[in-house]
Design brief:
By secondary structure, this protein is mainly alpha-helical. It has a domain at 57-128: High mobility group box domain (DNA Binding (I), subunit A). Helix content is 72%, strand content 0%. α3 crosses α4. Keywords: DNA-binding, Nucleus. Residues 53-122 form the HMG box domain.
Length: 166
Amino acid sequence: MKNAKGKGAARASKESLKPVDDRKVGKRKASGKPGRSSAPKKEKKAKKDPNKPKRPPSAFFVFLEEFRKTFKAENPNVKAVSVVGKAGGEKWKSLSSAEKAPYEAKAAKRKAEYEKLIKAYDKKQASSADDEESDKSKSEVNDEDDASGEEEEEDDEEEEDDEDDD
């Protein structure tokens, strides 16, 4: 009888001595609106301009363009893009700096062309932004002139009415 009472009594007394945890009891924090998460909303990204020139490929990607052609010719059954990329990466790592030089030269040439294109694009964007600002300011000035002109006409009509009364 002692054994049974001792084990059960020990468990019960330990549980009664533990501090009460509010989270387990079921207290909840009040939420603002049901169904909505409290996670912060993501900011929308600015839309990309389709006319903006694409960035030039690095030397590795210039190499990979040629490597894909040779790899596909040697392995026509391989359809996975990841296999081609992994094989290209291993081949690129195994190349010496002398073997990488022609690809780096092509990449540098493409980068120079890109820089020319981006400068022209930036100038075009700046000029179109200036045009839009000047158009806005013209319309705002015209709106203000129209509004002030209407007020003057109303004042003139009131003066005429006053004169007629005399």
